[in-house]
Structure formats: structure tokens, C-alpha cells
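User: Predict the structure for this protein chain, please.
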Amino acid sequence: MLSIYPEEALRKWRQLPRSERRAVDDLGKYDVALEPSPPPGGLVLNVFARPLVRVSAGELEIYRNPKAHLSKEPGRDHLWLTRAEWKSLVPAQPETGDRLTVPGSIADRLCRRYLIDLVRIGGEGTPRRPEDVLSSDLVLTVEEVTPARLRLRLEGTPRFVTRGREYGAPQKEGRKDPFQLLGIAEYDRRAAVFTRFDIVALCETGHYGEIGKKLLPLGVAFELSRSETPADRVRPHSYYDNYFGARR
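Assistant: Here is the predicted structure, written as C-alpha cells:
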């Protein structure tokens, strides 16, 4: 590694002999299994997480700490659903007002793996343990039905136990962290594809600021990805940890 700082690394790179800069290491044969692609016909959501702060009139703003340059960017991840999973979210004969409980495997993945502190400074970044989930029920409500479109509202109040001094919860019983979650999904019935899948989740005590030693709100946002670029197809952070739930 030339440097952890981009500007310094670039300067050192330019000082290297041309032969060294053009040299290519033999990394062996590419193994596709080591870098999986999104499931065929599946759904990909981009995920962003940020610490927030309450300001005047109780409004929320992005929290940025001048002593921590990594606080300038959100934590990022991707959520993958298989074709069978996202199709299970579309009612076969929808009527306005119908309510559908999100299948447990999908709710578990969304809540345990993404309603976490992905922030680079003071973040948790690992899936919550099943025993630390107090509630993960999510409900879809049909808001609008036309021959061309289906509009769904996603709601839930997932609750978790957060443990660990490094997360501001040194007590043995941990800290209870409730989230408020709201989402809107729109489905093109003729093309049989989702055209929108926006979700926001907020926990007032979800982020522990290591520098200020205080709890801050945590916001997590999801948006539908077109998966057109390599960056859009990067595997989820916790993919290798039994991601699709074949075993517990």
C-alpha cells in the first residue's frame, strides 16, 4: 500500500519507475464463485445509512463531524431478493386496502442485515443476531390498483436489542432500539416488474458517536437499483453469512 490517503498515494505512484507501474501481477484464474452476481431475475436495492442530528424545531439533518472525514459519506450496501421472493410481494388478485404480511425470510433479511449501523465511524456493520430481534414484522398494504399499476405501502416498527460498550450499550441487558419504517413500492402489472421501491427507516438511538460519546438518530434508506454498472452489482456486505437463509 502506497498510502491510506489518495493524494499521497497518487503522488508516490507517479514517482515509481514506468516499468513498475506497468507491471501486472499474476493473480491466478478468476473464480466466479468468489464474487457472486445478483440472482437471475432478482431485485436489487441500494442501501444508504447515515447518522443524523436533531436541530431547531426537531428537524433532522445529516451529522458530520469535522474530526472524522469518513462521516461525510453514507455507509453503503445492497439488498438482494430472488425472483421468487419479490414475486411473493405481489398479490395475485389485489384490491385496495388488502394487507399482506411480508414473508419472514424477507423481513428477517431486511431487518437483521440492513437496519444496522453501516456508518464507517462508530458503526456496527454486522448482521444482528436472531436472539436480539424483538420484532421484525413488516406489512404491505395495497393503496392503489389499476390495470397498469399496483401501488403498495410498506410499514413496520422493528425492534432490536443492541449490546456492547462500543455501541453505547455497556449494560448487560443492552439497549432497546425501535425503528420506524415506511416504504412505497410501485409495480408495473403489464411488464411484471417493480418500477419503484423506496424505503426509509429511522431509529432515534441507532448510532453511537465515538468521538462525542453520545447516541444519535440513525437513518437508513433503500432505493431500487437498475443494476446497470459493476458498482450496482457488488455483493451485499453480509452475503457469505448465510444470506438467503438456507440454514440458521
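The chain has a mean pLDDT of 89.
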